[in-house]
Structure formats: structure tokens, C-alpha cells
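Subgroup meeting minutes
Present: P.N., E.W., G.H.
Scribe: E.W.

1. P.N. recapped why we're keeping a running log of single-chain structure predictions: easier to compare across weeks, and new members can see raw inputs and outputs side by side.
2. G.H. added today's entry (174 aa).
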Amino acid sequence: MSVSERRETVLKGPGKVPVALRVNGVDYRIDIEPRAFLLDVLRDELSLTGTKKVCDNGQCGACSVIIDDKLVYSCLTLAIECEGKEIRTIEGLSAGGQSDPVQQAFIQEDGYQCGFCTPGQVMAVTHLLEHNPEPTLDEVKRGVSGNLCRCGAYPKIFEAALAAADLKRKVKHG
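Output recorded in log:
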């Protein structure tokens, strides 16, 4: 890396610092601790509680969100690192009171049991279908492999993902 390519590190803190976040198309300016994780900021500061706090150490995927077109665990992502990025949560999928096709498919196919993993599963399927609109069953399994379902609802989750692909095609082609 050349000298001109290096970015100057700007240290923030100690204490709360102002941060600008764009979540689901809405701009927020909040004061947070630099060490605050995105999951906690979404839930505690922005009242976006659809993203679930389950394992809180990057092992289950229930807290999955999409940041700049990348599926990430929000429990391992510092909120301060999300400045200038587009964050999408489960709340950002529905529009105008209408559920997203992925959400509709999870309901239609009973792709959930207890519901703790469902938001993360929905976000993983959403991300998969944005990159591969016609996945095979094996591709669906790989696409949600970072998300654990403690109830074992995987067959229904896989069916929901394939049904969501069909619904998205129908919506796209009218």
C-alpha cells in the first residue's frame, strides 16, 4: 500500500461520540460509545428490535443484517464502522404495509418454529436471492449455512427460500 493509499486513522472517544447511520433508507444521528456493536445500537438506540440478540458472539446468525450488499452478523460489527454505509434490517424489507416475497414465503411455507432465528434466516435468503434469483436446493443450503435453527426447521426454511424465489419471479414478471 502506497502512502497516498493509506487512510488516516481518526480516533474517537473516550465516551459517546456522534455517529450518522443510514438504516433502511432513514438517516439517524446518534451519540454512541465507539465500542458499541451494531446489534445493540439497532435494538437499544433505534428501537429496531426485529434483529434478534441470541448468541451475541457470531455463532447463530439471528442478528444478520445486510450492509452495503454484504450479509453480516450485527453482533460482531461495530456500529461506528457503519458510518457512510447502507444498513438493511428485517424491518426494511416490507414496503407500504406489504410483506416482502421472502417474508411471505416464510409464512406460506411455515419456515419457522420459535421465531428466534427467523429474521436472520429471512435476511440470509434475501441476500442469496439478490445474488442468485434461481438457486438450487444446495445453493439455498449454502446460503443459509451461517444461520442456526435450534428447532430444526431447516426443511421448511429451505422450502420457504425456494418458494420466495418463485414469488420474486412472479412479482418481477407480473
